[in-house]
Amino acid sequence: MAGVFTKRLFHSLRASTTVVLVSELASKDAPVGSHAAAAPYVITAENLTKRYGDVVAVDGISFRVPAGEAFGLLGPNGAGKSTTMKMIGGVSQRTSGSLSIMGLDPEQHGPEVRAHLGVVPQQDNLDEELKVRDNLLVYGRYFGLPMSYLKPKADELLEFAQLSDKAKSKVDALSGGMKRRLTIARSLINEPRILLLDEPTTGLDPQARHILWDRLFRLKEQGVTLILTTHYMDEAEQLCDRLIVVDKGKIMAEGSPASLIREYSTREVLELRFGSERNASVGAELGGIGERLETLPDRVLIYAHDGEAALEQVTSRGLRPVTSLVRRSSLEDVFLRLTGRSLVD
Amino acid sequence: MIKKAELTQAPQTAGPTAGTGTLRAHAPEVSAARARRWGAFYYAEQVLRVMKAYGWTIVMYGVGQPVAYLFAMGVGLATLVQANGAGAFGGVSYLTFIAPALLISAAVMTAANEFTFPVMDGFKWRRVYYGPHASPLTPEQIAGGQIIAVTVRFLLQSAIYFAVVALFGASPGAWGWVSILIATLAGLSFGLPLMAYAATIKEDRGQFAMVMRFIVMPLFLFSGTFFPLDTLPLGVRWIGWISPIWHGTELGRVVSYGYEEEPWLTIVHLVFLLVLAGAGWVLTKRQFAKRMAS
User: Which residue out of B42, B133, B135, B294 would a mutagenesis test of the A interface target, given it has the greatest number of A Cβ atoms within 10 Å?
Assistant: First the structure.
């Protein structure tokens, strides 16, 4: 049943244009420059800057997103991700720089730009007094869509969001994960080609996150361009084709999750805990093991191609960590390397 | 408002899905054009749907309040008041004298509710404005939509109120029904400046309760509601002069029982209400746009 509906949704989404464009894409690493209206990039930002008084929230960032890509902004809270999303969404004015969404400047063509987008904000802002299905109908009206389209579409999207049995419930009766899925369903009512997701899974339990990721994957398969902010590295690794690592309003690095890990980290990481008293002092005795050493308050990280071999070297020096763990490098390590700080404070 | 036929002009996107799906949204350009034109009405539809959830309260407010007031004041108090001679009320019954005032006051009190807490809810509590803000609607249209919806409520509530007043025989003039429109205008002239103020509030420190207690109540009591304004000492008479309730009430009296006043004064009442509503609308639009763009 769900498969049938998903298939219908696939057909109903205007995937065709984006799919075609993706196949025409030149190198994703092409330099940022001026582009014609027919350029395959759906979003182009150049030196995008946003200041609130003396505070620089976004500090001259440039990036381009081709159609159909899942593009992530990864960074800690306060890095400027949400501000960037608001500018892309045409609801916050930039201080300087240029921005083009589907070839349009969101400041001059706000309604036109927003008509192209689906937006999932960081905080749910559903109509709590209205029933679940009515939330979709009312939202669709903002796009001037007639009820003859909206009624069947709302049922289709509820099926997609696994909320069909809740269609007549009030929104405040839904769990956090369900509200999130309803917000995503709502954002799809106008069949957007670009979906903006600001911290889509923050505050959700692991199971709810996985359900949500699955839905986002399906959209990606249908050719919807996903723009996603997150401070969860696993989310970024799972969903993003390419991402920018943002810190203090600046881009620290750009690339696919795998290429970033290759470039900024080793294949494996050895995590050692010697107890909070000793972690710092033991660092000096670990010199020469692995390619790089990072001493954190709660643990010591040794970056090495072969974590097990590094652990053997540690024990051969007579050091006895309380716990040890060998794991693959992740984007967390990339972020640590780039900023000297952890992603989740 | 939207014809089915327009749907078929939807996006003719080439590709494998073209023509296969029967269910297709129209092109973003069409959405944007419609939103630019009708956006405020789209948002009004949302507010009216939410109001429907407490529609029963609105109807009860519309019927219950006039019945209670008209009985208490118009029938109970009137016997006492009229014992002192009806001359003080321009030769009409006390009930006829206070009915337009009660109608106008009810609209102003509704304005004090509809243009305060829901605005705070929109910007802060449940952030309901930020959903439509991400759609093609503009902040000005969101403000306009809410105003349209509340105007519908004013009209509905005042019509019910007027019907009750008429049943009590308290609106003898043929033009009495115009007081429905006057009440709506008075509600907007008080409500729109208040809405502009509500849109500036970032922290709720009981400001709205203060507005009710120290603005709405004094206006209600000292606007020539229960007795002619010129029976008050000059020291407090100014409250009436700056009060939309007084200007609305005087207009209401003119249309409902042919209350005689200088024609220029009637024009002053009307202009006062229009200017206040107009200024409130301009300030509200500006404040919504400013707050939502930050």
Answer: B135
